[in-house]
Amino acid sequence: MIYYVITNRDINPSKIIDVRCLNSADVGSDHSLVLCKTRIIRKYFPPKRAAPTQTKIKVEGLNKESTEYLYRKRISKKIAGNEILENDNIWNHLERVEWTWNHLC
After folding, report:
1. Superkingdom of this entry's organism (predicted)?
2. If 25 and its partner were Cys, which of 33, 36, 43, 56 is the partner (CB 3.0–4.6 Å)?
C-alpha cells in the first residue's frame, strides 16, 4: 500500500502519471520498491544560426570631388540605358531595372 510519494521540486505532482508497488524486488526488508512513471518535457533548443555578415562599404573615397563626379556619371549612364522602348512591355523593363539595381548596389 502506497500512502504518499516524495519528489523533488523539479517533478510537479501533475507530471506523475502512474505509481505502483513492485513486490518481487528483494530489498531485504518488509518494504516494497515503488515505481513511478513521470512525464518529462524536454526543452527545445533551436540550432544556433550564424549571424549574417554585413559588408561595409568604404565611403571615404566619395569625399573627393573627382570620385563623386565619376560615380554620378557612371550611374546616370546606366540609368539612361534603361529607357522604355515603344515595343517593349513592362516586364522586360522591370528586368532591366532590377539588373541595373543589383549591379550598381
Report:
1. Eukaryota
2. 33
Listed in sequence order, the residues at least 6 apart from 60 whose beta carbon sits closer than 8 Å to its beta carbon are none
d(CA 100, CA 71) in angstroms, rounded, equals 14
When comparing pLDDT for 61 and 53, which is higher?
53
pLDDT in tens, 5-41: 777 777 788 888 888 887 776 667 777 778 888 888 7
Q: Is the dihedral of CA 97, 103, 104, 105 positive or negative?
A: positive
Cα–Cα–Cα angle for 6, 9, 14, rounded to 5 degrees: 75
- The DSSP letter of residue 22 is E
- Nearest C-alpha neighbor of 15 from the set 42, 34, 33: 42
Are 78 and 104 contacting, i.e. CB atoms less than 8 angstroms apart?
yes
Q: How far apart are CA 82 and CA 84, in angstroms?
A: 6
